[in-house]
Design goal:
Helix content is 0%, strand content 35%. It has 138 residues and is mainly β. It has a single domain, classed as 3-layer Sandwich (Rieske Iron-sulfur Protein), CATH 2.102.10. The structure holds FE2/S2 (inorganic) cluster (FES). The site of FE2/S2 (inorganic) cluster has 10 residues, from loops. The site of FE2/S2 (inorganic) cluster (FES) has 10 residues, from loops.
């Protein structure tokens, strides 16, 4: 339900340790975790791709392309619950951890390497459109 654009990347650098595995990634600081509503999302237009940053009740952050695998609905406008978001258009449930639709639906929203470090959200620039990683806090 809650969605508004994040600020443009402010700094490029590399979170030091504990960052998700995103080989060759450069990390861009996107916003503070507190800029994302709890159980909500904000969007970021990043190199022409709209990415939704979701915040869980326990302050973990996940990043998915803001496009439902069903018919392209804006996942950032959905309802976040646990590690899932329910698409606002037709109610598909998408896993925030892997971007996968929950059965019996099938399909996948591209996921993006994201990292929380000292209260800031970092996105792996080289990870677009998707990379193997374990999203969540560093
Ligand atoms: S577009 Fe998301 S459920 Fe249909």
């Amino acid at each position: 339900m809650n969605s508004s654009p994040c600020k443009a990347p402010e700094v490029e650098g590399a979170p030091e340790t504990g960052a998700p595995d995103a080989p060759g990634a450069r990390w861009s600081r996107i916003c503070a975790v507190s800029d994302i509503p709890v159980l909500g999302a904000r969007t970021l237009n990043y190199r022409g791709t709209v990415i939704a940053l979701f915040r869980t009740a326990d302050d973990r952050v996940f990043a998915l392309r803001d496009r439902c695998p069903h018919k392209g609905g804006p996942l950032s406008q959905g309802i976040v619950h646990g590690e899932h978001v329910t698409c606002p258009l037709h109610g598909w449930v998408i896993g925030l951890r892997d971007g996968a639709a929950v059965a019996p639906d099938s399909g996948c929203a591209a996921r993006h390497a994201v990292c929380v470090k000292e209260g800031a959200v970092w996105l792996a620039a080289a990870a677009l459109p998707a990379a193997p990683f374990t999203p969540g806090s560093c």
